[in-house]
Amino acid sequence: MTEELNARDKEEVRQEESTHPGRSYRPDVDIFETAESLVLRADVPGVDESSVSVRLDDGVLSLEGRVSVQDYENLTPVATEYPIGNYLRRFQLSNDLDPEGIAARVTDGVLEVTFPKSAQAKPRQVQVTAG
Amino acid sequence: MTRFRFASPFDSAGRLLTLQREVERASGNPFDAEQSPSGRGVFPSTNVFRDDDGLTLRMEVPGVSPADISVEARENTLTVSGERTIQIPEGTSYHRRERGAGRFARALQLPRDVDPTNVTATCKNGILTVRVAKSENAKPRQITVQAA
């Protein structure tokens, strides 16, 4: 049984400061955890891999995506439902993530960031020996 | 440090603000064939633009593979349908879940001055762009005035 998909209104980011003028919006995200890694996926329609920035600064992960205005040249909006803008979202990360191994990619307007768990955070099987 | 460049980032930022204001001003119903009870929230969110050559629809479909989208034009109704699936590895626990999965279908009534037999669709970076060309009848024609 497949559910019907609904569109959500974009929420503008107001409290954050950005060096880029123009309005920014908060992308919807999924965060999930596997035994090996923590994965974050964010909806950033209109953004490609060259205009996305993933930064880890003092345990704070910043995701930024910049839309291209070029695709809108000579077009006059006549009826609009969603705002066009950059994307911005920040997360405080837990300490057991390995900042060295972060990988990010963008596919069909979805940014996926993968953090390998640091060695001590991975579940370990402890060998019980007969004594 | 370069302070001023020909293509300065401030230009594109200024253009973004201008575009944002124009898009806001045009906020309204993009001619749905059937009004949903809420009016809003129908997936995919759609913006409608015009230029000299016709109509451009831009729909937000992040995470939907172009292969999973179907665009159909029948008489003057344009239907966009498909499905967004979210795949996660086995043995996963969610910390946060804001992105939805499921099927979608949306029908839009095209205005009379465009040609429903002349439609193209492209999908890039989670944005579906559908172009409907202006109908030949709607294009201005110059009529030669002959001396009688």
Please characterize this protein's 3D structure.
The complex is a heterodimer of chains A (131) and B (148). Chain A has 131 residues and is an all-beta fold. Helices cover 0% and strands 40% of the residues of chain A. Chain A has no helices and ten strands. A five-stranded mixed beta sheet of chain A has the order 1-2-8-6-5, with no helix packed on it. A four-stranded antiparallel beta sheet of chain A has the order 3-4-10-9, with no helix packed on it. Chain A is elongated and about 80 Å long. The N and C termini of chain A lie far apart (54 Å). Chain B has a domain at 31-87 and 101-136: Immunoglobulin-like, CATH 2.60.40.790. Helices cover 11% and strands 40% of the residues of chain B. Chain B contains one helix and eight strands. Chain B has one helix at residues 9-25; strands spanning 46-51, 54-60, 69-74, 77-84, 93-97, 102-109, 114-124, 127-134. Residues 1-9 of chain B have low confidence and may be disordered. The interface between A and B is large, with 50 and 65 residues. Strand 3 of chain A pairs antiparallel with strand 5 (93-97) of chain B, so a sheet runs across the interface.
Largest interface: A-B, 50 and 65 residues
β-strand amount of chain B: 35-45%
CATH level-1 class of the domain at 31-87 and 101-136 in chain B: Mainly Beta
Please state the overall shape of chain B, judged from the principal axes of the Cα atoms: elongated
Radius of gyration of chain A: 19 Å
**Could you give the order of the helices and strands of chain A?**
EEEEEEEEEE
Q: State the CATH topology of the domain at 39-72 and 81-119 in chain A.
A: Immunoglobulin-like
C-alpha end-to-end distance of chain B: 71 Å
CATH domain class name of the domain at 39-72 and 81-119 in chain A: Mainly Beta
Strand composition percent of chain A: 35-45%
What CATH calls the topology of the domain at 31-87 and 101-136 in chain B is Immunoglobulin-like
Largest sheet of chain A: 5 strands, mixed
- Which sheet architecture does the biggest sheet of chain B show? 4 strands, antiparallel
What is the mean predicted local confidence, pLDDT of chain B? 87
Unreliable segments of 5+ consecutive residues of chain B: 1-9
Number of helices of chain A: 0
Structural class of chain B: mainly beta
Oligomer: heterodimer
Radius of gyration of chain B: 20 Å
Number of beta strands of chain B: 8
